């Protein structure tokens, strides 16, 4: 049996039912008497995500999902040259200087903040207990 013969068979089976009872096409689909076209579905496509993907929540969720899959990003520390190499005379390693300033500046900054708090205690702006914390 080829496709054309099969189509004739299907059409011949459907025609007598429609001519005898004369139902409307809507009624036939509701009752289930008419056979749908082979291979067809009720819906042409079923979306995988029923929610709206245009909202900001979806973008945030997607970003979090992608971030979870990757290792934590490390802070890039530049160096003028690989370890063990000698730099030419007169070269100033600015990256090393910045790292040194950050390290030293943190302790100096802390000392300055403590001195400022001591002065505030002397002036009576804050209590001694708060300063000791």
UniProtKB/TrEMBL annotation:
It comes from the Eukaryota. Residues 14-34 have a biased composition (Polar residues). Residues 1-92 are annotated as: Disordered. Residues 1-10 have a biased composition (Basic and acidic residues). This is Uncharacterized protein.
């Amino acid at each position: 049996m080829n496709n054309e013969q099969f189509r004739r068979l299907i059409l011949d089976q459907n025609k007598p039912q429609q001519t005898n009872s004369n139902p409307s096409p809507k009624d036939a689909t509701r009752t289930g008497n008419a056979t749908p076209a082979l291979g067809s579905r009720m819906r042409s496509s079923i979306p995988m995500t029923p929610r709206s993907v245009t909202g900001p929540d979806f973008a945030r969720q997607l970003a979090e999902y992608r971030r979870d899959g990757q290792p934590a990003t490390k802070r890039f520390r530049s160096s003028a040259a690989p370890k063990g190499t000698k730099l030419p005379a007169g070269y100033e390693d600015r990256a090393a200087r910045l790292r040194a300033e950050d390290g030293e500046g943190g302790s100096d900054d802390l000392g300055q903040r403590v001195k400022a708090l001591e002065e505030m205690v002397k002036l009576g702006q804050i209590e001694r207990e708060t300063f000791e914390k």
